[in-house]
Amino acid sequence: MSGKLSKPYQPLLLRVLHGLTGLFAILAVITAFWTYDVYDGRWGQIPLPKWTEIEGIHGTFGLWTLLIFPLFAIYAFHRGQSRLIQSDSLSKLTRFGQPIWWYTLHRLVNTLSILALTFAVYSGKMMNEKWLPQGELNHSWYYAHLISWLVLVSCIALHLLMSIKVGGVPLILSMINWRFRSKDSPNLWRKNIANWRSDFDIIMIKQWLSSLSLLKIIEIFVLITIVLAWIISLVKEVG
């Protein structure tokens, strides 16, 4: 299926991965504040129910985010790299107020949002689920996770504001529209993944690493951090 060409169009896989990552991240953000409200509240509270099980629910949403986030990150850094920071982004930021300035700022916010979510899932994995129920509120990783919450909330807000600024309501609606073109059909996803795997080898990796850019460095950092988060989680389970 296809919509009118005059309307913004987003690849279906981007919409699925972006939607799931965004949904789980927002639910994790909401339950994170609820967890803070129940167990901490030193910097302000609101009258939420004192539901102690909320910490486990927050952890579940955090886990779901960590499961889907690597797929979204890989897509964003490759098929969606035009939406992220570019090699000439800093020079374009000097053209204040012009359309290219807003588009460049949008790309920077998108990139920062990925980094913020990486910080959030990693700092969350570094925490111990027993700390808060036992009243242990002064661990450095707990403070880091609180800071990650503030950073992520700010990035989500900026991401929405910048999306509205550069694309308006049509851009927002294009991310939740389920109409898709034939080339984006889910029936082709398995074939595309198989083709990608067949082309994936050491030579391709060496060629990719031969010309490092800022975006590639960010991608490597994000993916290594996600892998470390999983390794640390598994080590905790075994220990």
UniProtKB/TrEMBL annotation:
Per the UniProt entry, what are the Gene Ontology biological process annotations, in alphabetical order? respiratory electron transport chain
Q: Which SUPFAM superfamilies match?
A: Transmembrane di-heme cytochromes
Please name the GO terms that the record assigns under molecular function: electron transfer activity
Residue ranges crossing the lipid bilayer per the database entry = 12-36, 56-77, 100-122, 142-173, 214-235
Limits of the Cytochrome b561 bacterial/Ni-hydrogenase domain: 10-177
**A single GO CC term, please?**
plasma membrane
Q: Could you tell me where this protein is found in the cell?
A: Cell membrane
Source taxon at top rank: Bacteria
InterPro entries in the cross-refs: Cyt_b561_bac/Ni-Hgenase (IPR011577), Di-haem_cyt_TM (IPR016174)
Q: Please tell me whether the keyword Membrane is annotated for this protein.
A: yes
Where in this chain does the entry annotate a coiled-coil region? none
Keywords attached to this Swiss-Prot or TrEMBL record, sorted alphabetically, are:
Cell membrane, Membrane, Transmembrane, Transmembrane helix
Q: Is Transmembrane helix one of the keywords UniProt gives this record?
A: yes
- Know the name of this protein? Cytochrome b/b6 domain-containing protein
The record lists the organism as: Plectonema cf. radiosum LEGE 06105
